[in-house]
Amino acid sequence: MDGDVAVVAQGHRRGWEFMAAMTRAHHPALYDLGWHPTAVCGAPAAAVAAGTVLGLDGEDLTQAVRLAALGTGGLQAAFGSDGKSLQVGLAAQTGVTAAHLARKGTDLGDRVDYEWGRAHGSESAAEPMRLDAVVDNWIKAYACCLQTHTSIEAAWEATRSGATAGAPVKVTVHPLSRRAAPLDAVSSPLESKFSIPYLTAFVLSRGRPPTFTDLQRVDADAAALVPTVTVVEDPGLPQSTAVLQIDGVEVRCDAALGSPARPMSAQQHEDKVDSLGASQVVGLLDRPGTPAMSVVAVLIERVGLD
User: Fold this and answer.
1) pLDDT at 65
2) How far apart are CA 165 and CA 89, in angstroms?
3) CB-side exposure of 240: number of CA atoms within 13 Å?
4) How confident is the model at residue 185 (pLDDT cuts 50, 70, 90)?
5) CB atoms within 10 A of CB 260
6) Could you tell me if 127 and 25 are in contact, meaning their C-beta atoms sit under 8 angstroms apart?
7) Confidence class of residue 282 from pLDDT cuts 50, 70 and 90?
8) Are the CB atoms for 79 and 32 separated by under 8 Å?
């Protein structure tokens, strides 16, 4: 990679916008059918990002997206296992490979433009792609499934009203949230990130949301309290709303921190970046002329690759 940070930033922006537009256009059809939209739409989006960095445009970039569509996949069944991260990584790999193939002149034609949505079952429900869909993007405040965040915050608010762990708890959510976080009892840290009962019990027992470090292990106290939490589905609720009832107290959370309706403050966003150990990378991104490989080197060091 011979480009500088400015080129990589442009690729990231274009890929991110494409990803947001594609997932929004096929939501909730992809989710309803059991697909993992991040992985399914991630391959074409990665092709846009990689293709931009490689200097592709016009028909060549379009072919990169079409080629990436050949390798799309990813299932919600992988949630709570190593598979979730792996299928997102495979999507990125597919997109990069597609961009290189397009650069070499590989031509798929245009049939995939009309067949992709049908193949994934979202054709009839798909809407036109809008690049401004990116403004609806979330920034996760907590290192667990996005659809658990309102349950976490409802439990947190309940503790501030005097609720304590151990009493019977009822959490009502939209069916989509339950599909995203289908687990109850957990036996591993990855599973804990997809369990509304576990995360609710954790907050009620600790009086605060879980940190990144908290979710690197299964908390024995929270795990023991999972049977006290019952999750109920209500299709009449908004997709991300959670209503928690405990000890006669009812708390409703419609918008979690980091959602479009309740964005993070500048300080909260900076704290999020710091918690990920990404401050050094952000510093490099502030200097557009920095060689892109300098950023890659920092990332490799950060994740411990050789």
Assistant:
1) 95
2) 38
3) 17
4) very high
5) 11
6) yes
7) confident
8) no
Q: Which amino acid is at 169?
A: V
| Of 18-32, 153-167, 168-182, minimum mean pLDDT range | 18-32
What percentage of residues in the chain have a pLDDT greater than 90?
70
CA distances from 176 to 107, 153, 237 (A): 38, 18, 10
Write the CB contacts of 248 (distance below 8 Å, at least 6 apart in sequence). none
CA 262 to chain CA mean position, Å: 17
CA distance 144 to 211: 10
User: pLDDT tens, 267-277?
Assistant: 998 888 888 77
Structural tokens at position 246: 């405990």
Q: Can you tell me which residue has the tokens 């445009």? A: 57
Distance CA 161, CA 191 (A): 29
All domains in the chain, ordered by first residue: 5-138 (1.10.4100.10), 146-253 (3.30.1330.120), 264-306 (no CATH)
